[in-house]
């Protein structure tokens, strides 16, 4: 149903582009009709591909169609935004002329020429931005190093490192090779532990299991920990949790693990995604349950896919929550929407007495595009902060 709504939104954008760009141009009528048909076809792709997926799941060009669909979605977004910016500039100039009483000095043929050139500029710049976005999305994740000061952290855990992977979204456009590259890059960091904070997949186990096999090679001295994200639930979270367990990863399902160095105790806890209970009755996020029977906790790290979990997590004396989900907005206007809908978008935040780190994500979702929001792999270092 989601992709049918996406197609509806794209159709509105297609109508806007037809009215503001295609029809007023000086192209021959046949070309105009072809452009209108192309825009309508691109707008219908999300619904079309979804229909093929549900009714012809073994269709040979399944992934190819997804590439076309997501590429079209990304380009249509860029094209619509570029045209909207152009219209805003035209409106501002027209308003200025009206206020000052100045008329346009250009003759109509000249104005029509510049109109067509502006159309070409909008189309070309949108293509260029889409290409740059694909290159950034498919590029090597940026390693972001973050020091987190924790009050009275035992000296035994001062300098303890956590490599965070999140929102890899292995699926139709992210495959085994990219997964393997991520695993090798993560292992090369040599972190003490690895935290995988959800949204590893976009699809079903039977379709993606071989693409996920490299994740079994993730290795750290204190282990690999996994919590579910919302996308695991869209395709059978129980199956994905089981697969991660067979890979040797510790799945924290409202649970915790205690790491011990000497007499110091570092609690690593994890909760289900905030949407989990909508799909599986026993998968509501419960930080209180995750921290039951911990005994003494010198410091506590909570793994929670959705940043909003911090509002409940902070009530339980948690020093740091590691999250993802937002992708940092991925590309404009997603960054603005993420800030409006999520609050915490990317980076390190202080929420009441707890720290919250939100990763931009290691992969991407939907259109294979990132603009100004590169993928990341985070290396968290815990630092002792003495409180007087």
What does this structure look like?
The structure is a single chain. The chain is an alpha/beta fold and 388 residues long. The chain folds into two domains: 2-136, no CATH class; 143-385, Purple Acid Phosphatase, chain A, domain 2, CATH 3.60.21.10. It has twelve helices and twelve strands. The chain has helices at residues 2-22, 29-55, 62-100, 108-137, 176-188, 205-212, 230-234, 237-246, 276-279, 287-290, 310-313, 334-342, and strands spanning 142-151, 161-165, 193-197, 224-227, 250-251, 255-261, 264-270, 299-303, 320-323, 347-351, 354-358, 376-385. The strands form two sheets. The protein has a six-stranded mixed beta sheet with strand order 1-12-2-3-4-5, with helices on one face. The chain has a six-stranded mixed beta sheet with strand order 6-7-8-9-11-10. Helix 6 (205-212) links the parallel strand 3 (193-197) and strand 4. The model has no long low-confidence stretch (mean pLDDT 90).
What is the gist of this entry?
Belongs to the metallophosphoesterase superfamily. With about 400 residues, the protein is an alpha/beta fold. Helices cover about 45% and strands about 20% of the residues.
How are the strands of the largest sheet arranged? 1-12-2-3-4-5
Largest sheet: 6 strands, mixed
- What structural class should be given to the helix and strand makeup? alpha/beta
Report the span from N to C terminus.
Answer: 55 Å
CATH topology description of the largest domain:
Purple Acid Phosphatase, chain A, domain 2
Report the average pLDDT across residues. Answer: 90
Number of domains: 2
CATH superfamily of the largest domain: Metallo-dependent phosphatases
């Amino acid at each position: 149903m989601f992709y049918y709504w996406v197609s509806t939104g794209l159709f509105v954008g297609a109508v806007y582009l037809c009215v503001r760009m295609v029809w007023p141009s000086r192209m021959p009528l046949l070309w105009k009709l072809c452009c209108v048909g192309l825009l309508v076809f691109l707008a219908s792709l999300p619904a079309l591909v979804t229909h093929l997926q549900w009714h012809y799941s073994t269709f040979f060009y399944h992934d190819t169609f997804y590439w076309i669909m997501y590429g079209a979605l990304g380009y249509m977004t860029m094209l619509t935004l570029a045209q909207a910016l152009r219209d805003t500039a035209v409106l501002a100039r027209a308003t200025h002329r009206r206020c000052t009483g100045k008329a346009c000095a250009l003759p109509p043929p000249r104005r029509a020429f510049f109109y067509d050139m502006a159309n070409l500029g909008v189309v070309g710049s949108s293509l260029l931005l889409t290409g740059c976005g694909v290159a950034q999305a498919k590029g090597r994740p940026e390693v972001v190093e973050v020091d987190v000061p924790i009050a009275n952290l035992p000296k035994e855990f001062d300098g303890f490192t956590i490599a965070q992977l999140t929102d890899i979204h292995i699926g139709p456009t992210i495959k085994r090779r990219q997964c393997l590259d991520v695993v090798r890059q993560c292992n090369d960091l040599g972190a003490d532990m690895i935290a995988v904070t959800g949204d590893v997949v976009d699809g079903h186990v039977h379709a993606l299991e071989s693409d996920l096999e490299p994740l079994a090679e993730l290795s750290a001295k204190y282990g690999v920990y996994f919590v579910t994200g919302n996308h695991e639930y869209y395709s059978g979270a129980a199956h994905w949790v089981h697969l991660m367990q067979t890979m040797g990863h510790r799945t924290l399902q409202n649970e915790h693990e205690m790491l011990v160095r000497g007499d110091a105790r570092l609690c690593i806890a994890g909760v289900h995604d905030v949407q989990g209970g909508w799909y599986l009755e026993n998968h509501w996020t419960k930080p209180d349950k995750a921290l039951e029977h911990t005994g003494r906790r010198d410091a506590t790290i909570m793994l929670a896919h959705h940043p909003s979990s911090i509002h409940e997590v902070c009530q339980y004396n948690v020093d740091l929550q590691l999250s993802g989900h937002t992708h940092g907005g991925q590309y404009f206007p997603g960054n603005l929407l993420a800030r409006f809908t999520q609050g915490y978008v990317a980076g390190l935040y202080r929420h009441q007495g707890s720290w919250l780190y939100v990763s931009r994500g290691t992969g991407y979702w939907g259109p294979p595009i990132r603009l100004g929001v590169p993928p990341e792999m985070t290396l968290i270092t815990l630092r002792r902060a003495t409180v007087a």
